[in-house]
User: Which sequence fits this backbone?
């Protein structure tokens, strides 16, 4: 699909400088764009590329003034970066605008659907499943009995949603995600053998949540594992039973959160962080990558290390750690001098 500079400017409420009828059919980086591509410039470090880019259209800030001759058409907007994001969202809406029910698949007679459903081939929809409006379910998705899916949800291929799971509105669930599998609950007997503790709770995903590929979220033993509104989870994260993640918290890849831990709102958690069970993590907490959290964390703490401790203390300690061989060598020399009188 092709768009003219005029059409794009209308979408972005921008102003065209150059050929208003030039057409583009793809999006690209400013340093890699071809004649049919559109790109943007917002970071001053890339300004030099605007004079050499082969892209037909470049989105720039209103404040941009060329210092050399430019061959490309410009679209001037208030914020080039935000405008490009808006254009990406618009592009995705067109690209992903699938509707209808493909064959083969299994849909229970007791399942209900809203308007504008897309259901990909080889999907399974269980008994009494409720699915809202404008939901896109890509091929090879399993949705178990009594699950509920809100409006404007995208579920990518290979997702498995176990029974009783509740998913809110405007959520995106990427390929390979498993929601509602059993929590890791076992009870040892007197002989050291483990008996499985039934996991009879569910998972509740609130509105505006995005879950990255390969992430797993376990159902609760009792009650619910709850992912609150606006949470963003990266790829390959493990969320255990009865965990609660607060509003607008973001978690990077390969992090693991053990059972019954409660994480506050607006937290930022780096990759490969490990958090033990039954903890309380406060609001606005920042945890650096590969940290190990084994204690309750107060609001606004910044942590690093394993086991994690204060970010400033960690950096000061790390300076000494790097110099440890030199320090030991100096101590050995001092010891020799003392011993030799």
Assistant:
């Amino acid at each position: 699909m092709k768009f003219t500079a005029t059409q794009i400017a209308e979408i972005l409420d921008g102003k065209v400088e150059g050929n208003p009828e030039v057409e583009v059919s793809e999006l690209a980086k400013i340093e890699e764009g071809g004649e049919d591509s559109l790109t943007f410039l917002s970071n001053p470090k890339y300004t030099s590329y605007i004079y050499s880019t082969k892209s037909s259209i470049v989105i720039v800030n209103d404040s941009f003034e060329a210092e050399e001759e430019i061959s490309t058409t410009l679209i001037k907007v208030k914020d080039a970066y935000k405008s490009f994001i808006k254009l990406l969202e618009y592009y995705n809406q067109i690209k992903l605008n699938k509707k209808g029910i493909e064959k083969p698949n299994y849909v229970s007679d007791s399942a209900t659907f809203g308007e504008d459903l897309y259901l990909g081939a080889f999907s399974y929809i269980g008994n009494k499943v409720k699915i809202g409006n404008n939901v896109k379910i890509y091929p090879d998705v399993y949705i178990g009995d009594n699950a509920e899916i809100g409006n404007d949800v995208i579920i990518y291929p290979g997702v498995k949603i176990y029974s009783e799971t509740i998913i809110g509105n405007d959520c995106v669930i990427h390929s390979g995600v498993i929601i509602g599998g059993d929590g890791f609950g076992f009870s040892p007997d007197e002989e050291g053998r483990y008996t499985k503790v039934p996991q009879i709770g569910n998972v509740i995903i609130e509105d505006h949540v995005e879950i990255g590929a390969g992430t797993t979220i376990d159902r609760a033993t009792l009650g619910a594992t709850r992912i609150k509104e606006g949470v963003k989870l990266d790829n390959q994260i493990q969320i255990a039973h009865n965990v609660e993640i607060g509003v607008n918290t973001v978690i990077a890849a390969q992090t693991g959160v053990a059972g019954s831990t409660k994480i506050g709102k607006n937290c930022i958690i780096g990759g490969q962080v490990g958090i033990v069970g039954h903890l309380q993590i406060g609001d606005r907490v920042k945890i650096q990558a590969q940290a190990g959290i084994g204690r309750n964390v107060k609001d606004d703490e910044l942590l690093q290390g394993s086991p994690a401790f204060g970010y400033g203390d960690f950096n000061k300690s790390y300076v000494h750690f790097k110099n440890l061989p030199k320090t030991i060598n100096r101590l050995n020399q001092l010891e020799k001098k003392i011993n030799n009188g």
Observations:
- The chain has four helices and 40 strands.
- Residues 191 and 197 are 17 Å apart (CA to CA).
- The first helix runs from residue 5 to 12.
- Residues 100-313 form a domain with the UDP N-Acetylglucosamine Acyltransferase; domain 1 fold (CATH 2.160.10.10).
